[in-house]
Design brief:
The protein is of the alpha+beta class. Among the domains are: 60-133, no CATH class; 315-578. Helix content is 32%, strand content 21%. It contains 17 helices and 26 strands. The strands form five sheets. A nine-stranded antiparallel β-sheet has the order 14-15-10-7-6-5-4-3-22, with no helix packed on it. Helix 2 packs across helix 3 (70-78), helix 7 runs parallel beside helix 9 and helix 9 (205-217) runs antiparallel to helix 10. Mean pLDDT is 95; it is low at 1-12 and 14-20.
Amino acid sequence: MNPRCFFILLAGLFGTAGLSAQPSFTGAAPVPGVVQDAAVRRADYLQRRAEVLQWRVGLVKPGEPATFGLGEIAAKLALHQEAEACSARLIELMQKPSGDMFWMFPVTCISYLGRDQLTPAAKAAVREAWRTYFPLRGDTENHWTMYYTTLYLMAQLWPDEPGERWFNGKSSAEITAESRAWLLQWMDLTTTIGQGEYDCTHYIGEYSIPMLYLATWAQDPAMRQRGRMMLDYVMADYTVETLNGIYVGAHARTDDVTVLEKWNGLASFFGWMMLGNCPPPANYGGWGLFFAVVAENYELPEVIYRIGTDRNGSYTHFERKRTRHRWRNSDVRNAPVYKTTHVTSDYALGSDQGGLLQPIQQHSWDLTWAVPDPRGVHNTIFSTQPFYGAEELMMYFTEMPDSMPAAVTFQGKPTYIAESKLLGGSPYEQIFQQDDTLISLTDVADTAPHKQVNGFFSKDLTRIEEDASGWIFAQGGKAYIAYRPLAAYEWRPIEKGGKRLYSPHAKNGTILQAAAASEFKGWDDFKARIRALPLEIKLTPAPRVAFTSLRGRKIECAYGAAPRVDGRTIDYAKEWKLFSGPYLNADIGSRRLTMTHGRLTRVLDFNTLTITDAVRP
């Protein structure tokens, strides 16, 4: 489900109304910094939690039932307010359940928050709904994580009940066993070969919130520990690839809005909540409420907080993820995804290796620059090869192929088949990144729907200059950007601002070199330095680039071949670990993540279900 359609669904489930007080998403932007005192950080965190809850209960208007939905009930129960009113409204809402796992999740939350508050009649109404309403399991990793977490917890709430008491005809014991098995299998995949729906700008919530619920409510100590450890895991994975709380680089899934306005996703709620360095999205991302209701049961470990806020200069971070399950058009069920992210205080460049790594909403690379207030700002630049087709959809979905592409556009992905699309992967794109240099090559087949490259140039770039050398020089914030299209192009307007570099050539690509403005005497010095860099480009018989970067690295990329750096061939399979860099490290298959910052170390070992903290002398 598209995140924005999801939030519309949330509005119907949980109620809507105007604001009763100015929330942080309309206030001044936080000033990024490090809060040294852990007690002060904790107090700030709990204050932000209280703000979310108070804002949500303030949406309720007496006499207007539509403003009193499941979200408002959860907030009021978390604050121990008006249990009788919550019970009465809950009975009404249980008459016509809808929303599948998006219904299961808030109702599970309410059931646990209300164990000592809801009336017997309200509890009975909830119990009956879980017998008569058959929610769908969905078809994505985040759907299944929510589905099985809620089933696990509800079977724990109602143990020893026979199949006729459940919508799926399975007993409480059977539900517990199935749910536990899936959750453990997902945790094992994630900690051995990587997450499938990795680094999503919205769906980070659908993983972090279930893990918080397990850590809070699971009776089994092992499952409770797993929930806590996986929540640490997800938060560490997020914070290491942020720039002032904004998720940067490549994402398995984002959407048409957030791919341009990088801040505008649920991930920024966690930047605000956990790190205090980013404004939250409107309405706290919708789903953020369901983290806030039990947020007091989690404390972000010091080492993860430091990774997200206290960087000692620039760094390059590497990750290995996996594709979603492939059902057709592939001999590999979960192909590896190789990610590189280079982060500085002024900008971040991140990428994957290109190809069809995810369906529909893949975002393969971008440069993001720091801004004082990211709201409404398109602080990013990137290019993509716009591809769509049944080949992609059949690989990752099980429906019949004939109507797939057309159907997708009616399911919350309106740009899927558009030639102007800026979102999605392509089987004809190959990407390599070295530090803050990126080379993307495309060699598009004659049968492809669009034989072009689309480059996104933001409305918020402070300058853009086309140079006779073929380079396009731009500046975003304190980042200098050199962008080199490999083939002829023209400019086309973008409805919401900025412009699209349209290059209608099958053999094509993009070179991008970023740098901090502070590295140069001025703008002209930067341009002169870029022009002086050795560069060779050949487009036939297949695109090929040899480029010496600002960092002195000779990068050679040829479409269909492994990249080379300083004469050495890059072997992704041998060189990429699950995590590697100055802050996070984990070997493939290890089930063990080591987090490091300065003197601090925290080890999550899923083999022994232990968390080990250490402080180096």
